[in-house]
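User: My collaborator and I are trying to settle a disagreement about how two of our proteins should look. Neither of us wants to argue from intuition anymore, so we agreed to look at predicted structures for both before our next call. Could you fold the first one, then the second, and keep them clearly separated?

Assistant: That sounds like a sensible way to settle it. I'll keep them separate. The first protein:
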Amino acid sequence: MARGKGRGLGLIAVVLVGLLLAFVGYVRLSPVDPAAWHQPVEQAEDADLAGGAVRVVEGGEEQLQRIDAILRALPRTEILAGAVAAGHVTYITRSAVFGFPDMTTVERRGNQIRMYARLRFGASDLGVNRKRLERVIATLQGG
């Protein structure tokens, strides 16, 4: 009888590991549609959201170029869509372990730069996107 329980638990463990691997594969390999994520940043003031954050700073073309350099220097971050020359760029940053994608859109409107960082999967990012934007701003300000 004990031997049968051991096989059952082993089978459950194999199934759970298989499900975890399938989930990780889905998260890492599912396509990201640039058109869905590369949208204007409508929020005009700082906001903390359940799945992300918005930060607004004063600045022009030079500040936008500096923000672009800061974001591209972050680990596992690349441009998803847009360009600094267009004044509108969306980046994708993946978490280290599972590869969860977060999108950060940076847009220049006049003398304002709006940054909107948000998750793709789940309901809460546990403040990761807010912290990323705050690090970008601190670096921008020389801190």
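The second protein, kept apart from the first:
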Amino acid sequence: MLEGALGIPPTHLVNEYGMAELASQFYDDGLRAHTEDRPALPGKTIPPWVRSRVLDPETMRDLPEGARGLLVHYDLANVDTPFAVQTEDVGSIRYGRIQIEGRLTGAEARGCSLTFERFLEMEGRA
């Protein structure tokens, strides 16, 4: 739809995962892959100054690579905000890249999710 409306090809659209509580963001690889003439890597780049963990939601223990759980981020760029942020986002880490898979069941919608939900509600009324 964006390509038709704005002329921006899908290879030039970059999806971002971030939150107000973090100074850093995580980005898709599509544009870089396009400029390097290679297939895009799955997931989002974890900045080198961020450490992300995946925890079992019941035990809060670390899960192995590729396992699905709650995401926790430690962001060295957070100077005047909390260093660690435990999210209600569900995902995994594979090959050093974060895979976002959704929100914890029953988690409150926040941030951009609210805007998107309102958009979906308006689309349903049309």
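Some points you might bring to the call about the second protein. The chain has a mean pLDDT of 90. The domain at 2-125 is CATH 2.30.38.10 (Luciferase; domain 3).
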